Amino acid sequence: MRRTALAVAAATLTLPLTACGAFGGTGTSKASPAKGDDVTVGLLLPETANTRYDRFDAPALKKKVAELTHGKGRVTYANAGASAGKQASQMQQMIDDKADVIVLDAVDSHGIAGQVKKAKAAGIPVIAYDRLAEGPIDAYISFDNELVGEVQGRALLQALGSDAGSAAKIVMINGSPTDPNAKQFKAGALAQLNGKVTIARSYDTKDWKAEIARSETAEAIEALGKHGIDAVYAANDGMAGGAIEALKAAGVTKLPPVVGQDAELPAVQRIVSDEQYMTVYKSYPTEAENAAEMALAKVQGKDIQFDSLTRDRVDSPTTKGIPSQLVSVVALTRANIKETVIADGVYKVSDICTADYRADCTAAGLK
């Protein structure tokens, strides 16, 4: 993916752009006639293994659509359960049901292109959400995925400290080969790691499955020895958990630094207990709310608002110059749990500091 006109910082979250934000640009919406508040938004999310989709993304998008349409808008939600075929059927149903706009987080970004073309032919705009789908999509919103990988890579080097160097052996547990984000995370991480450590083993993990990550880590342990892994790059928290399970099962008592992504509750608890070094915190409600604004602006003919929400441009393998919004991220470690997920209301201290983690929480200053 090519990114242009992008300036982000890893230290702070990008605040959501709103309808009263910086307007500008020329109108690009072709919605005709423009819809009122009686809008149906189709929401297609990819899987349930990652708890974010049902816990954060879907509720936040539904709430924002209701707010922006004075309670008259509807969201039709379908989750594909990691099945590309199921998602294609779900999208076809939304096309048949004449949804006004579809927000699509693709299981298989290449495989869904045919359905995107069908939606286009039916006059239904498609907003690619979180993953850049192929085909004639109208807009794209995601986090800055290469920055995510860069933040992970920098954190891993920070954790290694003076132990970084060509002798340091890193195992990379990358995301699914069907997810274009995984390639961007990997590229960002390698931009930081190459030449500074040795990538001893690297895996592209089907469907982001934690159990496959555990098997891959076990394979790496067998090849390198249980004390031969200096750090683990895991593209998300579920796989980080699988890697940690494999290390523990092999009898590793002093765990190497492990980095992940998504700030899932078990990962935050592992960070509190020093089993996982860091995770990438991404404000999913911000992403979902801004996606709702983009989708409604597109079909309601609010050209200036749409342009103000999509000031970046990206290229997919099939489409150039896609209007986009790329949201920044935060590296979450033991030191800034209060300032991130707790301050933003994602978790309460009581969610994190259950009985098994109470002593660790006290040591970390979480009360």
Give short descriptive properties of this protein:
disordered N terminus, 8-stranded mixed β-sheet, alpha/beta, globular, 14 strands, 367 residues, 4-stranded parallel β-sheet
Description:
- With 367 residues, the protein is α/β, with parallel strands linked by helices.
- The chain contains 13 helices and 14 strands.
- It has helices at 52-68, 84-96, 113-121, 145-160, 180-193, 210-224, 237-249, 265-272, 284-299, 303-309, 338-342, 349-352, 358-363, and strands at residues 3-4, 40-45, 74-79, 101-104, 126-129, 139-143, 169-174, 198-204, 231-234, 258-259, 279-281, 312-314, 322-327, 330-332.
- The chain has an eight-stranded mixed β-sheet with strand order 1-12-13-6-5-4-2-3, with helices on both faces. Strands 8-7-9-10 form a four-stranded parallel β-sheet, with helices on both faces.
- Helix 1 crosses helix 9 and helix 9 packs antiparallel against helix 10 (303-309).
- The longest helix is centred in the N-terminal third of the chain and has 17 residues, at 52-68.
- It is globular.
- The termini are far apart.
- Mean pLDDT is 90; it is low at 1-32.
SSE blueprint:
Layout: E1 3-4, E2 40-45, H1 52-68, E3 74-79, H2 84-96, E4 101-104, H3 113-121, E5 126-129, E6 139-143, H4 145-160, E7 169-174, H5 180-193, E8 198-204, H6 210-224, E9 231-234, H7 237-249, E10 258-259, H8 265-272, E11 279-281, H9 284-299, H10 303-309, E12 312-314, E13 322-327, E14 330-332, H11 338-342, H12 349-352, H13 358-363
Parallel strand pairs: 2-3, 2-4, 4-5, 5-6, 6-13, 7-8, 7-9, 9-10
Antiparallel strand pairs: 1-12, 11-14, 12-13
